[in-house]
């Protein structure tokens, strides 16, 4: 288990990048370029909205 932790610590960026590239390749094969581009754009918009809501504290204020 310690070996996996050291590999993850040393190669975190390439592992995440390889996984993201694999997912993008699967999306391109399954849906095509423009649908994959739309998915990427909408995902980026969602991340931006989520980041904004987290920074402004809006999500934390809504919990009871």
TrEMBL record:
Keyword Transmembrane: yes
Top-rank lineage group of the source organism: Bacteria
Family matches, as Pfam families: DUF2273 (PF10031)
Keywords: Membrane, Transmembrane, Transmembrane helix
Alphabetized InterPro entries for the sequence: DUF2273
Regions crossing the membrane: 6-29, 36-54
Name of the protein this chain belongs to: DUF2273 domain-containing protein
Organism: Weissella minor
